[in-house]
Write a structure and sequence with these properties.
This protein is mainly α. It contains 13 helices and no strands. It folds into 2 domains: 163 residues, no CATH class; 49 residues.
């Protein structure tokens, strides 16, 4: 148990940016959910059992008449298809985590993936416990934010128009942070270029999956060359 205590203690500072972000976008989700007439407890339960970030924002619109099950499945797949590629890149690390790997797969959000890929495990801490601590703390921030937002939306009526932009803003912050932190920014430039090309070809509603496939293909083909790049800053 002391191993987990140390893991959580060491992991917490790395999760502070996610804490600040998840509290605010969790609150935004809770407010939007409450506006549909649902209790804050349902918002908490959804964040606990679904935990899909932008997928939950999208799901708020599923509770209106006229949305079919096929539409729900397709729209959810389009929004969260990137998680398939996240999981593929972490198969080896999760394979050695025993039963905890099932939660790690479930808790693999954009922000958690970013931390798992860029954070070095501190000395004296077991890797699997450190990664588990990051994942579970990140989800707790999201659940708490959803509860606060659900309560606020129920008790304090206000206009929430535009509040869903909080998720977009968080993605921008993550990208900028990655750009500033990495030594080689070619993968980021490939991602931006591929997304822009697919956006022009497939349109706003269908470009996510083609973008992911194109990015993976380019990175796979150029992998050897990218690994040989001399370290340098992206600034």
């Amino acid at each position: 148990m002391s191993g987990y205590k140390m893991a959580f203690k060491k992991a917490f500072p790395y999760t502070i940016p996610v804490l600040t972000g998840y509290l605010f976008i969790g609150i935004a989700f809770g407010v939007m959910y409450a506006e549909k007439g649902y209790s804050f407890l349902w918002a908490m339960l959804m964040s606990l059992l679904v935990y899909a970030g932008s997928g939950q924002y999208l799901a708020v619109n599923f509770f209106v008449p006229g949305i079919s099950l096929i539409q729900v499945i397709f729209m959810t797949l389009m929004v969260n298809v990137r998680h398939i590629f996240y999981g593929i890149s972490l198969l080896e690390r999760f394979h050695n985590m025993g039963k905890k790997r099932w939660y790690m797969i479930f808790g693999l959000t954009d922000e958690t993936y970013s931390l798992l890929c860029t954070t070095n495990v501190p000395e004296g801490v077991e890797e699997e416990k450190f990664l588990f601590a990051i994942s579970i703390m990140n989800q707790s921030y999201w659940v708490i934010g959803s509860a606060i937002g659900g309560l606020a939306g129920t008790l304090i009526p206000f206009n929430s128009e535009g509040i869903d932009f909080a998720m977009t803003a968080l993605f921008v912050v993550i990208f900028v942070e990655q750009w500033m932190d990495r030594k080689n920014c070619i993968p980021e430039m490939i991602g931006v270029a591929a997304s822009f090309i697919c956006l022009q070809i497939f349109g706003m509603d269908s470009f996510v999956l083609p973008s992911m496939i194109l990015i993976i293909l380019v990175l796979f083909i150029a992998r050897t060359r990218l690994e040989r790049q001399v370290d340098g800053t992206c600034q």
